[in-house]
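As a next step, we paired sequence with structure tokens, yielding the entry below.
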Amino acid sequence: QVQLAESGGGSVQSGGSLRLSCAASGNIYSSSYCMGWFRQAPGKEREGVATIDSVGNTNYADAVKGRFTISQDNAKNTLYLQMNSLKPEDMALYYCGASPGRCGPYVGRYFAYRGQGTQVTVST
């Protein structure tokens, strides 16, 4: 069983930065997993943000390319999302997810496992 726990959300002004973390249990980094972040804002559809596979290949949604960076620390079983130049439209509940196997060609928004989410608020 895989358990995921996000942290690092908060409130920032437009243009600010945040780093989200996702602690994973189950030593999933010893296996082949696709890890990623997705977000959901009130009244909007779930949106894939970024994915990373077990060898470090990354993929980003167009809306965050050049501003967000996904990374992982296999030794710590932790996934990260560095978010820079935040915009009000980035405001959402951010979740990390994990699915066994390889990442697909597109930035996924549905995963076999997900955490409880961490809120990101961006003010103008």
